[in-house]
Write a structure and sequence with these properties.
This protein has four helices and 14 strands. By secondary structure, it is of the alpha+beta class. The chain has two domains: 99 residues, Diaminopimelate Epimerase, Chain A, domain 1 (Roll); 92 residues, Diaminopimelate Epimerase, Chain A, domain 1 (Roll), CATH 3.10.310. Pfam families: PhzC-PhzF (PF02567). This is Phenazine biosynthesis protein PhzC/PhzF.
């Protein structure tokens, strides 16, 4: 990494609530020339400390590279929704494969396969209040705690605990886990996660799941 160079970092909020608040913070490096390899990108992702950081290797073809503070990911939901919104493309390409994108004005949607998502332990609770009352567990498995808020309407309360021990005790909004839960339940969901982030999902044909949410640009800074 060239430590004398400067790089603009866009910070997006992905899966915002209807009032534009909440959402999960995402770092996007649109010009990663000074971070050409996995080691330098991993170091930057750790330094930034977001749940995920995206490096845009080709803004025209939508080729992206995704990192948590501790590892590289072939696929992740909220980084792809955020990057798709920022780049305004019909297709975005993480290592897992092509991800189709659409927008409907308020929401940005991606199409993905649940099997692309990293493993998550989906743990159902009896009520939203039980989920709200959970303490952050000790580092270990990645737990997606959820409960029905209104089952008939597909409304879910959820919290995500990465269990990684890398400083991210709770993930504010987790697209990959939402995909897994949607595939398991086989129905469209309206998920409230964390402090109030909103994720929408809908199962499609041939194992595809749509994942959608609101995105806003919070700030841009130079590193």
């Amino acid at each position: 990494m060239n430590t004398t160079a400067t790089t603009d970092i866009d910070v997006l909020r992905v899966f915002c609530a209807g009032d534009g608040r909440q959402g999960n913070a995402l770092g996007v490096v649109r010009d990663p020339r000074y971070y050409p390899d996995e080691a330098s990108r991993q170091a930057l992702a750790k330094e930034l400390g977001f749940s995920e950081t995206v490096f845009v290797d080709d803004p025209e073809r939508g080729i992206v590279d995704i990192y948590t503070p501790g590892t590289r990911l072939p696929f992740a939901g909220y980084p792809l929704v955020g990057a798709a919104w920022l780049l305004d493309l019909e297709v975005i390409v993480p290592p897992a494969g092509e991800v189709w994108v659409r927008g409907d004005g308020e929401f940005t949607w991606i199409e993905a396969r649940a099997e692309w998502a990293p493993p998550r332990t989906l743990r159902q609770y009896g009520s939203a209040a039980e989920v709200d009352a959970l303490e952050v567990p000790e580092p270990g498995e990645w737990i997606y705690a959820w409960a029905w808020q209104e089952e008939a309407a597909g409304r879910v309360r959820a919290r995500g605990f990465p269990g990684r021990g890398d400083g991210i005790d709770e993930d504010e909004a987790t697209g990959a886990a939402a995909l897994l839960l949607t595939a398991e339940l086989g129905r469209a969901l309206n998920i409230t996660q964390g402090r109030g982030s909103q994720l929408l999902t809908a199962p499609g044909p041939d194992g595809i799941v749509e994942l959608g949410g609101r995105v806003r640009l919070e700030r841009t800074f130079m590193l």
